[in-house]
Write a structure and sequence with these properties.
Helix content is 28%, strand content 20%. It has ten helices and 18 strands. The chain has a seven-stranded mixed sheet with strand order 14-13-15-16-12-17-18, sandwiched between helices. The chain has a six-stranded mixed sheet with strand order 5-6-7-8-9-10, with no helix packed on it. A five-stranded mixed sheet has the order 4-3-2-1-11. Strand 6 (105-109) and strand 7 form a beta hairpin. Helix 8 (303-313) crosses helix 10 (364-381). The two termini are 34 Å apart. The model has no long low-confidence stretch (mean pLDDT 90).
């Protein structure tokens, strides 16, 4: 089964008309995207968009052989005039299946938001899933016996849709996940590729023809990642974003609760509200045994608070205790953590503060903490496939 992506952008296209944002201003040439529309084996058109006939011609195809046009967007009729000779667009009711004379079977998949998803099975058994913008499948409870060969979905706007598919086996390790309905949320080029690669997905230019079921190199999701950044840099958001397409995640909060500290409570509440409801939370600084266990991906937020707890436990703030064995104990704890990261079989994303570039602390204890955090970050980074520095909400890849 062969598909041609006549467009890969959001319903309004990219750049959006009359939008002056930075992403739209730079969405030129190969980075410009028409509204998403998919031509399947020159016989089935999923979504009718402006200029579809010209887009097909530019890709070396014709809409003359299209026998069925199906709409996925949450509206009742086509958004544009139907070109001459093209069948009137329609929509398959949720759960119903349509069989074409060409041998394609199309089943409508219910969504949790407006619109209709389509599961297309080709004449030779290849399986494609196409999801509308801003929606995820609803009612996926039973694991499927076979994963889709290809998934076309709004990976940036609804990453949880991919998490749901993975949770029930509809998207597996060999599923080719291609992002569509791309909007001005993420800058095109390297940043978009990086974001999608972290989700095990990719994007292709408009007009690309893909073969469903053919082997494609799926982007490698880094198994161990350290995300560094200063205060309010966006480092926690970056770390959470890296795991939002996973069906299960264990969020490890090393800061715990602080009775009577309303500012800290507000910070904790903000983090909790931002996390997917399927994630579990563990409040602990005992990271070594946790990393030794098998289980779902782990997000550790953050190493800075872990270090503060360890320094408390070894008496690092007292010069006599520090010189009398506290420093040695701390080095051992850091080495144990680095060894645990090296040997873990779990996917790990950790957050830490980058504090060595600012003002030199006025106190000896502050300087000691700054120095030791630099050592912790270095030891942890040495065991990670990817290290990222977040500055003003922008992620700079240092490794990987």
């Amino acid at each position: 089964m062969e598909i041609t992506l006549l467009g890969t952008g959001a319903p309004a296209g990219l750049p959006r008309p009359d939008c002056s944002c930075a992403v739209c201003a730079t969405a030129l040439g190969p980075h410009a995207r028409a509204a998403t529309a998919v031509l399947v084996d020159d016989a089935l058109l999923l979504d009718l968009t402006p200029g579809a006939a010209f887009a097909a011609a530019r890709a070396g195809h014709s809409l003359g052989g299209v026998r069925q046009v199906l709409l996925s967007h949450p509206h009742d009729g086509p958004a544009v005039e139907v070109p001459a000779g093209l069948p009137q667009p329609g929509r398959v009711p949720d759960g119903r299946e349509l069989t074409l004379l060409t041998g394609h079977r199309v089943r409508a998949v219910a969504m949790d938001a407006g619109g209709t998803g389509y599961a297309v099975t080709g004449p030779e058994g290849q399986r494609l899933l196409y999801l509308p913008p801003g929606a995820a499948p609803a009612g996926l409870e039973q694991a499927t016996a076979q994963s889709y060969d290809m998934v076309l979905a709004d990976v940036v706007g609804r990453p949880d849709a991919l998490a749901r598919l993975r949770a029930v086996g509809s998207a597996g390790p060999t599923t080719d996940v291609v992002a569509v309905h791309l909007d001005h949320d993420v800058p095109a080029g390297p940043e978009l590729r990086r974001r999608l690669a972290a989700a095990g997905a990719r994007a292709v230019p408009d007009g690309t023809t893909l073969v469903v079921g053919a082997y494609e190199e799926v982007p490698d999701v880094p198994r161990r990642t350290l995300v560094l950044g200063g205060a309010r840099s966006g480092k926690s958001v970056e770390a959470e974003r890296r795991l939002e397409t996973f069906p299960e995640v264990l969020y490890v909060a090393t800061g715990g609760t602080r009775s009577g500290d309303t500012e800290w409570a507000a910070r904790v509440a903000t983090h909790r509200e931002r996390r997917p409801g399927s994630w579990r939370t563990a409040e602990t600084t005992d990271l070594v045994p946790l990393l030794a266990e098998d289980g779902p991906p782990v997000l550790i937020d953050c190493l800075s608070l872990w270090l503060a707890d360890v320094m408390d436990s070894v008496g690092a703030w007292d010069d006599a205790e520090w010189a009398g064995g506290g420093e040695k104990l701390l080095r051992e704890r850091v080495r144990e953590l680095a060894d645990a990261v090296r040997s873990t079989r779990r996917t790990v994303v950790a957050v830490s503060n980058e504090v060595g570039s600012g003002i030199v602390p006025a106190t000896a204890s502050g300087r000691r903490y700054r120095d030791e955090l630099g050592r912790v970050n270095t030891a942890f980074a040495n065991e990670c496939e990817q290290v990222v520095l977040v500055v003003a909400g922008q992620a700079v890849v240092l490794r990987g």
